[in-house]
Amino acid sequence: MSGLSRRFARIDPRHLPLLGTVAVFVLTASYGSFAYRGFFSAQVFLNLLIDNAFLCIVGVGMTFVILSGGIDLSVGAVIALTTMVSAALVEHRHWSAAAAITVVLVMGTAFGALMGWLIERFRLQPFIVTLAGMFLARGLCYLISIDSISITDPTYTAISQARLPLWSGEASITVGAVVALAVVAAGIYLAHCTPFGRTVYAIGGSESSALLMGLPVARSTVLVYTLSGFCSALAGVVFTFYTLSGYGLHAVGLELDAIAAVVIGGTLLSGGVGYVAGTLFGVLILGIIQTLISFDGSLSSWWTRIVIGALLFVFCLLQRLFESRS
Amino acid sequence: MPGSLRQRVLGHRLLWPALALLLLLAVNGVFNAGFWHLQWRDGHLYGSVIDILNRAAPLALVALGMTLVIATRGIDISVGAVVAIAAATAALMIGGALVIKDGVPVHTSRFPLPVAIGAALGVAAVCGLWNGLLVARVGMQPIIATLILMVAGRGIAQLLTGGQIITIYYGPYFFLGNGFLFGLPFAVFIAAAVWAVLHLLMTRTALGLFIQAIGINPAAARVAGLQERAITVCVYVFCGVAAGAAGLIISSNVKSADGNNAGLLLELDAILAVTLGGTALTGGRFSLAGSVLGALIIQALTSMIYSIGVPPEINMVVKAAVVFIVMLLQSAEFRRAARGWIWREAMP
Asked: Are B188 and B321 within one domain?
């Protein structure tokens, strides 16, 4: 008895939200495996990563923004702009894939940096600045073209179709999924092993305390939005591989999915508490809900949105309970 | 002591939004020769200006609700979803068909019209109540509390409509969005009436002061003995009902309900209208008339973009530019920096 309680005591209360998220994922996955034939296979789980690679990348950037106490609503629009600019450069201007990808990555990073600068320099609310950024990015898409541009460039199609076999060819993953995993690994390193990561946590905990401690608050705030802009552009590149097209209406509402993934991943919206790894599981939970609904077959697609809303509600409620207890 | 007329006009809060609207209307008039032309036909007024008024009415309604929410330091990003839910409810309860009874075509609806409208507004009020309780009772951040309904709300609206666009066949219902009263569109009267009632409530009772107090400092307002939580919940309920009314007007105007696209991005337009009207996004100071002006500005801008002949896709870029400019002008840091830049240039 005492041994059991000691083992419970050893779990750091800060890890509880993360453990809750992992538990929800494991429970949902085991429910699916028992309820549906063919659900428990390596490829089904790898598909979670393949189909949500862009969401995962955006989620990592969003985690840093929310950890610093801000929010970024422009991510979906930046993805759309990235797909649109890539498609226009490659198809209409006949640029090489490498040049187009470099340009869009720089563009997304600069876009994020500009928003971060406005937020930091003029003390504007992140919510309204990134909202305007969202309008701007979507509007720029429509300036390029109101129609979808499909990509036939050989490099793009080759990367899009490339599969890396795992377990001697039993299952495979795409380039996008590998990029997503790499971004998660880089995010974990950045958050926990660098001065920048510690500063972001400190700003989210209390901005004025971080300032008094002599931390580079202004620079880090701008960097957080720059990072989110870069992640959105990278996600846009992965999205371009995924759909092989550029369109102004790509990734509508993705910012909400990304916020939902971060919240379900156990990051507190008030900032300062959370883990990048949690966001990965948040994305996987969103993905597995979609997979469950498609395996069921009798439920319509809009149930996905209702279930995500309900999950968001439960996790926010738990966060509040958690906050009031500590 | 009231100052001179000139001071009062120059210092008035609504001066800038009003000037912006007049400027937009003037540009409209230059590019579109028939812009100011009003026509009296079949007992109704027709013309571009009337069209702007009519189309701005639903946005103005949502913006009025949003103004009060923002005044309490909140935000409601679920209004677009509430518009879709209210429209779906009304469309489901009315349905409607044209039947020939005794040789006369008669419109029939599944439920009487007042019941259907009441039910739609009731559902919208429940949505607002849900938001209000999450914000005031549970203590969630307003943007997250309303994000939940924004995500789930579209799903609920699609659940109601079965994923289809429901077409409404019931003449009397179309009066809300297409009818005319005294020669003017009926929707304009709805928006004007809601504004008038709110204006009286805010200026003739202490409610306006209470809402401002909550926005400036919620804790101090509670200590001062205000029913802070109850007022906050009421404000969200009102915002829900206003969005529901806008949903009714929109669905009546297009004679259908689309769970996926009705009121899409409306929350952004509403926030833009409120910002343009001079309401501070940080809570406290608010202006109902300013928000109505803001809604008119957005509609006049849209109309101008169409009449100049640039592709309508540029609309979003222009809106983004307007938001950037307005929020920079509202920022004290920016005004200080701008003053510094001008000062430096003036002293070579």
From this structure: no
In sequence order, what DSSP letters do the residues of B275-291 get, joined into one string?
HHTT--TTSS---HHHH
Q: Which of A122, A300, A309 lies closest to B152 in CB terms?
A: A309
The whole domain housing B228 covers 50-309
Cβ <8 Å between A302 and B138? no
Say whether both B56 and B201 belong to one domain.
yes
- Do B167 and B209 fall within a single domain? yes
Whether residue B338 lies within 8 A of chain A, CB to CB, comes out as no
Give the pLDDT confidence score for residue B106 in this predicted structure. Answer: 66
Q: Are B89 and B54 in contact (CB under 8 A)?
A: no
Closest CA to B133 of B116, B146, B151: B146
User: Do B200 and B142 reside in the same domain of the chain?
Assistant: yes
Together in a domain, B285 and B347: no
Q: What is the DSSP string of B176-191?
A: HHH-EETTEEHHHHHH
Residue B259 lies in a domain: yes
How far away is chain A from the Cα of B221, in angstroms, using its nearest Cα?
Answer: 22
Contact B315 A139 (CB under 8 A): yes
Q: With residue A150 as reference, give the H or E element that holds it.
A: strand A149-150
Cβ–Cβ gap B138/A270 under 8 Å: no
**pLDDT tens profile A102-147:** 999 999 999 999 999 999 988 888 888 888 898 899 889 888 888 8
State the nearest Cα–Cα gap between A300 and chain B, in angstroms. Answer: 8
Residues in B touching A139 (Cβ below 8 Å): 313-320
- A201 CB contacts (<8 Å, ≥6 apart)? A67, A191, A272
Q: Which site among B75, B313, B315, B328 would you substitute to test the A interface, given the most A Cβ atoms closer than 10 Å to its Cβ?
A: B313
Q: How many domains does chain B have?
A: 2
Interatomic CA distance for residues A274 and A259, integer angstroms: 13
Cβ(A172)–Cβ(A159) below 8 Å: no
Instruction: Quote ipTM for the complex.
Output: 0.75
State the nearest Cα–Cα gap between B198 and chain A, in angstroms.
26
**B2 within some domain:** no
Mean pLDDT computed over A284-299 = 84
Whether residue B346 sits in one domain with residue B229: no
Q: What is the DSSP letter of A93?
A: S
Interacting residues of B303 by C-beta distance below 8 A, sequence separation 6+: B28, B48, B51, B52
**Which regions of B115-170 does DSSP assign to beta strands (E)?**
165-167
Q: Which H or E run contains B105?
A: strand B104-108
- Give the residue among B257, B204, B234 at the shortest CA–CA distance from B125: B234
Q: How far apart are CA A218 and CA A143, in angstroms?
A: 33
Is residue B323 located within the same domain as residue B284? Answer: no
Say if A325 is an interface residue toward chain B (CB within 8 Å): no
Give a yes or no: residue B97 inside a domain.
yes
User: What does the pLDDT look like over B279-291, one tens digit per residue?
Assistant: 877 777 888 888 9
Q: Which residues contact B211 (CB under 8 A, 6 or more apart)?
A: B68, B71, B72, B202, B231, B235, B286
Q: Assess A259–B contact: CB distance below 8 Å, yes or no.
A: yes
Q: Which phi and psi (to 5°) does residue B75 adopt?
A: -155, 150
Q: Are residues B156 and B168 in the same domain?
A: yes
Chain A segment 48-87 residues within 8 A of B by beta carbon are 71
